[in-house]
Amino acid sequence: MKPEFRTEVPADWKGIRIVGVPDLLKQESSNLSPAVREALNAQNFTGTPNSFLPLILQKQDRVDNLLLAGLGEVPSLTPLQSRRFGALLADAVRDRSAILFRTEDVFPGALPDEQTLMHVLNGFCARQYSFDRYRSDREKTVAQRLVVVDARAASLAQLWERQGHIVDAVLRVKDLVSEPPNVLYPESMADMAAQLKNCGLEVTVFDEQALAELGMGALLGVGQGSARPPRLVALRWTGDHNPDNPPVVVAGKGITFDAGGLSLKTRPHMQGMKNDMAGAAVVMELLRCAAENRLPLNVVGILALAENMPSGKALRPDDIIRTMSGKYVEILSADGEGRLVLCDALWYAVSRLNPSCVIDIATLTGAMSTALGWQKAGLFCNDDALAEELYRAGEQTSERLWRMPIDADYDDLVPRGDADMENATFGQNARSIFAAKFLEKFVDGRPWAHIDIAGTAWSEKDTPMARKGATAFGLQLLYQFLERRASA
Ligand code: BES
Ligand code: MN
Ligand code: ZN
After folding, report:
1. Do 126 and 248 fall within a single domain?
2. Residues facing residue 412 across a β-bridge
3. Which of 177, 263, 315, 335 is the best mutation target for the ligand 1 pocket, counting ligand atoms within 8 Å of the beta carbon and taking the most?
4. Surrounding residues of ion ligand 2, Cβ less than 5 A
5. pTM > 0.90
């Protein structure tokens, strides 16, 4: 659904008209007619957030369909409150086909700025999403029309150009993460990524042979147990006026299904492991967004795609593999596959792309949700300035990060065994930090950040902002980060 922006209410409007009502207990002054006030009292409608009341009003010769929407204490709407309000509104008008959002009616007395309206619309569109493509009994969703009436229609429409691309990207990440692993696997995801050349991205897909030529023994090792071969995709957006300026590189873990390989997961742990490619989905849509919004920055996205399966050809615990960096890794657990596919992706970034910084995003460790729950993602970073930039972007988009330590105290965490390092530990302590310390060995001392979204990529229950399922966590935060970099 695309909002329409107009300066006037369309003639003969028949749909529902949103009327915002501030908290009636807290605020005396509101320009509601006595008739409406009376109706409100009769219905015990107080104007607190998440309270809605449909009303039918007769005015001389016409009838108005109103939906009163509680605003709480206006007008200081933060970005999060705005998105929340938009989401609640979307829920309340789910079965309506035409919605009139006249800013003056929705926010009586205090016109919000244009950016705040963008947040409201963002929340509205995001809340409508559900993954129902495979349900033949899915409700025939009403074709919705949302008309925004505001004197600033032209500049709002222009802002929505940009914001709409971000919202679309969020919804597409949710689609990708929700797709079942028999539909979405390394080759099919690489094919989808290849389509992005139509947006102006330069796309390179490395197949098994190309991966062998690059020496990516870790990515190949993880993929070798599956009937679906692995892929690495590089998506390049050259938006900077100087194409030679070092790019920001963002790499995503793209395990399209994580059975654990020969270190097979048990049933409750294997269920849901289609979402182990959430990082790669975020990176793919992030690059699309950069291209669609013509972001003035050089960015390269890397998708490390493989399926982690057990078979006669699968990587064995005890195997020693040679990574692209030349370092040897002894496999202790075939289920520690994320760090393996990423170590080759990171090395590719630092050895071939001359990055200004490298960021990876990955559903890497179950221990992440043990530490931080589903509310925040872990941020591991070897550069304080970069960590601060990412942290702030997370606060601004409500995709919040919490910094975890990877300082020298943890240097001995990754054991050497018979090779340069082992990929896992059977100890229970500091497992997320272990994985980060493992990755750190493949960034050659460059500014690098690792975002572990294992706890935040998927929501087990409905929230006010979104339904249960894929969250697209990281897309908005990383886009905000890139925009800040572009304007720095
Ligand atoms: N994909 C999992 C991590 C995960 C767990 C993501 C739960 C989302 C929800 C990862 O590949 C994994 O299996 N990690 C192991 C590592 C261990 C074997 C070294 C873990 O966290 O237990
Ligand atoms: Mn695993
Ligand atoms: Zn995994």
Report:
1. no
2. none
3. 335
4. 258, 335, 337
5. yes
Q: Is the CB of 258 under 6 A from ligand 1?
A: yes
Cis peptide before 246 (omega within 30 of 0): no
The CATH number covering residue 212 comes to 3.40.630.10
Phi-psi region of 356 (alpha: psi -120 to 50; beta: other; left: phi over 0): alpha
Q: Is residue 158 in some structural domain?
A: no
Decide if 30 is inside a domain. Answer: yes
How many CA atoms are closer than 13 Å to the CA of 108, on its beta-carbon side? Answer: 21
Closest ligand 1 atom to residue 434 Cα is 19
pLDDT digits (tens, 9 = 90+) for 168-227: 999 999 999 999 999 999 999 999 999 999 999 999 999 999 999 999 999 999 999 999
Q: Which of the residues 6, 265, 322, 376 is marked catalytic?
A: 265
User: Catalytic site residue 467?
Assistant: no
pLDDT in tens, 217-235: 999 999 999 999 999 999 9
Which one of the listed residues 339, 431, 441, 467 is annotated catalytic?
339
d(CA 207, CA 190): 10
Let me know if 339 is a catalytic residue.
yes
Written as six digits, the tokens of 180 are 């079942």
Q: Does residue 203 share a domain with residue 140?
A: no
Which atom of ligand 1 lies nearest, measured to the CA of 255? 1
Range of the domain at 21: 4-151
Q: Show which of 123, 151, 179 is a domain's final residue.
A: 151
Number of domains present in the structure of the chain: 2
Return the ligand 1 atom nearest residue 365 CA.
21
CA 27 to chain centre: 37
